[in-house]
Amino acid sequence: MEEKNMIQVTVNGAVRAYPSGTPYRRIAADFQDQYPSDILLVNRDGKLCELHKVLDRDCTLKMITAQDKPGIQTYERSAVFLMLKAFYDVAGRENVARISVEYSLSNAIFILARGNFKLDQALLDRVEARMRELSALALPIEKRSINTDDAVELFRKAGMIHKAQLLSFRINSHVNVYSLDGFVDYFYGYMAPDTGYIRCFALELFENGFVLRLPTQKTPEKLGDFQPSVKVFRELRDSTLRSEALQASNVAELNTTISQGTATPLILAHEAMMEKKIGDIAAEIAARKEVRFVMIAGPSSSGKTTFSHRLSTQLRACGLRPHAIATDNYFKNREDTPRDENGNYDFEGLGAMDVEQFNTDMTRLLNGETVEIPSFNFKKGAREYNGNFLTLRDGDVLVIEGIHCLNDQFTHTLPRESKYRIYISCLTTLNIDDHNRIPTTDARLLRRIERDARTRGYSAQATIKMWPSVRRGEENNIFPFQDSADVIFNSALVYETALLKPYVQPLLFGVPRDSEEYIEAKRLLKFLNYFLSIPADNVPKTSLMREFIGGGCYHV
């Protein structure tokens, strides 16, 4: 009997030999004791592989757990699959009309379920109990490739109409589907090898649906806190209704609109919706006669600058005179800027701002005094005064944009009634299909990649590399204050990914295969493949998207 070829595998500097055809799961088991969390995937020389795959060449393996971004994404995806299987088992397949996985909400996924059943906590408790039964059985999550036409027919018969519609736009002749104890579904991304890996979850009734609570990347062995922002949820719910009204609640519907040549009416309708919302905000500000400071904050690539310009236009239409002030001009001089734990300048924290000077200037303006507004010279790292004097008169309002604008510590001397606070974020509600959601952070990252390349000459690799640091700054300095806003403005546009695709796709292909950022670039490329693209010709020059692709009428 011929002996199997032995293959060299390097893990954490250790070299071991395994027979050809050994599943990665077996190799992961040999190294599991070196990791605090379950190994969910392996990174083989820069390519992610599921654990059921087998060894076929000499390689270096990096183990991926839920403490890594691809790992926690795999855990979430697998938990959703487990929940769907359990829900159908408990409620009865014939009684379920539709289960749609909507969006992330405070370490949980918000889900809507419709059908011939009463959605209450008692039902969810039974579904959760069934999930735990299936988890204890460690049932295999099997992956197989089937003909695309067969997959379309399979999901159409199963009542998953949007999934069937989505796959009808796929060029590939085959697609991968996953099965769990006879339940078949399609997912964008990798899965755990069996249900035994999914142990940390909970189901809770919430608003008109329920949430699947999940662990965090930082501590994947315990549930994350569930403290949802009610204001953000309401904006997401309202945005979902607007998308449904436009018949663009998922990529399948959007692609159908594009393929039928009716993208322009969709673009103009959504832009009109957004303009109306901005006009309503301006009218509310004008009605509050005591408001002198319009404070705007939001995470990176939310479109704060264009929004500020459009709001200023609407404020003028309401008879007010807006004046823009960037809080960046109140940075401390470089030598006074605090450093983080790594010794780098911390430009994101409140400590980087000259809070007292800002409050002194704003208070003087409020009292009718004339103030010289500074400008910050980023090359010199110093604040300068160049004769920019300002006096607030009747009808004047300041439109102030900056990451700390919702933090009361930043405006601690200003009367509450003098401030109108706006939280802006790209809260996408467009999903790939009913069971595959699009993270809001993905939409913002695509915007950032294109803008960085166009305005700063950054590569997609550089933007992806800095993104985790940007996200940490948002978690610390922006998200904790979102509920203090008077209004939340959603800057997401249903058509934007289809618009960004031809701009971002070539940039992502430029990420080197041997770089750490390649895995994320490849994931985004696969994500973009689901979209038909649309040209920018009929996107208005006032559109918020012009901040990212160029060609707008505002200086941003």
Can you describe what's shown?
- The protein is of the alpha/beta class and 556 residues long.
- The chain folds into three domains: 6-65, Ubiquitin-like (UB roll), CATH 3.10.20.30; 71-231, Threonyl-trna Synthetase, Chain A, domain 2 (Threonyl-tRNA Synthetase, Chain A, domain 2, 2-Layer Sandwich); 232-549, P-loop containing nucleotide triphosphate hydrolases (Rossmann fold, 3-Layer(aba) Sandwich), CATH 3.40.50.
- The chain has 15 helices and 21 strands.
- The chain has a five-stranded mixed β-sheet with strand order 2-1-5-3-4. The protein has a five-stranded parallel β-sheet with strand order 14-19-13-20-21.
- Strand 6 (96-104) and strand 7 (108-115) form a beta hairpin.
- The longest helix is centred in the middle third of the chain and has 25 residues, at 263-287.
- The model has no long low-confidence stretch (mean pLDDT 94).
